[in-house]
Every structure is written in C-alpha cells, then in structure tokens.
Specification:
- This protein is α+β, with helices and mostly antiparallel strands.
- It has a single domain, classed as Ribbon (CD59), CATH 2.10.60.
- Helices cover about 30% and strands about 30% of the residues.
- The protein has a five-stranded antiparallel β-sheet with strand order 2-5-4-7-6, with no helix packed on it. Strands 1-3 form a two-stranded antiparallel sheet.
- The longest helix is centred in the C-terminal third of the chain and has 18 residues.
- The protein starts with a helix and ends with a helix.
- The protein binds 2-acetamido-2-deoxy-beta-D-glucopyranose (NAG) (2 copies).
- One 2-acetamido-2-deoxy-beta-D-glucopyranose binds next to loops.
- The site of one 2-acetamido-2-deoxy-beta-D-glucopyranose (NAG) has 2 residues, from loops.
- It holds the Pfam family QVR.
- Keywords: Glycoprotein, Signal.
Length: about 140
C-alpha cells in the first residue's frame, strides 16, 4: 500500500506534466502590474504559457518585482523559473542599483499575488500537525 502510494506520488510529481504560469513584464504591458487580475479571462488568454520542459530543472512559476534605483521604476515580471532558490518562497536579491523581490511557487498560474500565502498556511498546518502528533 505504501509502495503504491509513493509510486503514484512519484508518477504524478515526476511525469511529463508541464506547469503553466503567467508570463509577462509590466515594462511591455501595464496589465502585468500589481494589482493583478488573475481571474480575468483576457489576461489568462494573453499571458498564460505552459513552461517549456527542462532536462535538468523542474519548472516553477516565478514573480519578480524589480525596483530600479536609477529612475525609481518598479517593474513586475512573471515567468517560468528553472533555477530555484531553495528553502524560500520569497527572497530578495540586492545589488548596487536594484532590488529584486522574487517569489516562487509550484501550482498552475500561481505567480499572481503580491505575496504568496499558501506555503505559509501549509507550514502553519504542518507545524500544528507536528505539535499535535508529538503530544498524542
Ligand atoms: C534548463 O534551464 C537552465 C536554467 O535556466 C538553462 O541554463 C538550460 O539551458 C536549460 N536546459 C534546457 C535543455 O532547456
Ligand atoms: C534547505 O533546507 C534543508 C533542510 O533544512 C537543508 O538540508 C539544505 O541544506 C537547505 N538548502 C539551502 C540551499 O540552504
């Protein structure tokens, strides 16, 4: 039974299933900016892509908020990511002339929100579960 469960899980996770994500850049199309109307059929039509499979990396959805100091511009980029920053849902990349606030997520069209809530909820639930089960 357990073997079957893990085999199924592996089949689902490792299959040729291609995640789909919003792909756009507010510098080219202001509809890509926040607040983002993820439910809008027009935006889905225009921006949703199936991420190209990559032999080395598993694709995920990514949202990058780029704060450019030179002209004070803020750009939002949504795309498929391949090289993941481990252990963080969101993180910041800083350099002399910009901040990049990057969020990564793993479900279809998830690169929408300003901050990603689901993993925090999941972490919270698993913490509660851990406390519950260690006490039982
Ligand atoms: C896989 O993704 C990495 C990182 O983006 C890229 O450097 C590499 O060329 C990709 N490989 C293929 C086969 O697309
Ligand atoms: C991510 O977390 C795991 C488990 O805590 C740890 O083993 C791993 O080294 C971490 N990876 C990075 C890149 O920090």
């Amino acid at each position: 039974m357990k073997v079957f469960f893990f085999a199924t899980l592996l089949a689902v996770v490792g299959s040729s299933y291609a995640i789909q994500c919003f792909e756009c850049n507010s510098a080219r199309d202001s509809a890509c900016s926040d607040p983002f109307s993820a439910e809008s059929p027009a935006l889905s039509e225009a921006f949703v892509v199936a991420c190209a499979p990559n032999a080395t990396y598993k694709a995920f959805c990514r949202k990058t908020k780029m704060s450019l100091f030179l002209n004070g511009e803020v750009r939002i980029q949504r795309d498929c990511g391949y090289m993941r920053r481990e252990n963080y849902t969101c993180y910041q990349q800083r350099s002399e002339d910009h901040f990049f606030d990057v969020c990564q997520c793993d479900t279809d069209n998830c690169n929408t929100a300003t901050s990603f809530q689901a993993p925090i909820v999941a972490a919270f639930v698993s913490t509660i579960a851990a406390v519950f089960f260690t006490r039982a």
